[in-house]
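Request:
Um, any thoughts?
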Amino acid sequence: MNLEKTMHYSSLYVIYGELLTKKQQQIVECYIFENLSLGEISENFNISRQAVLDTVNKSYEILKNYEEKLHVLKKNKNLKTALLNLKKGISDENLVEQINNIIENL
């Protein structure tokens, strides 16, 4: 999986990951955040590589479906862009710092 796709699904997981089953969460976390191979995950969970791949793909589809319906990631990106643009026109240091804090917490 390429870096851009990994980053995208990582962002979706941060937003919607709690909506996956515990087993899906564990497998996706190993795959995305721990960068374990399908073989390593299959050994850790005592399941086949195909079962790991199926779980990852199904989980990605679930995360993608939530985003298509709720648009939380898209809204966060749009808000961040708007705040960055707003920050450019502000000279008040305290207000710029407050905007930076908001951006960091998105």
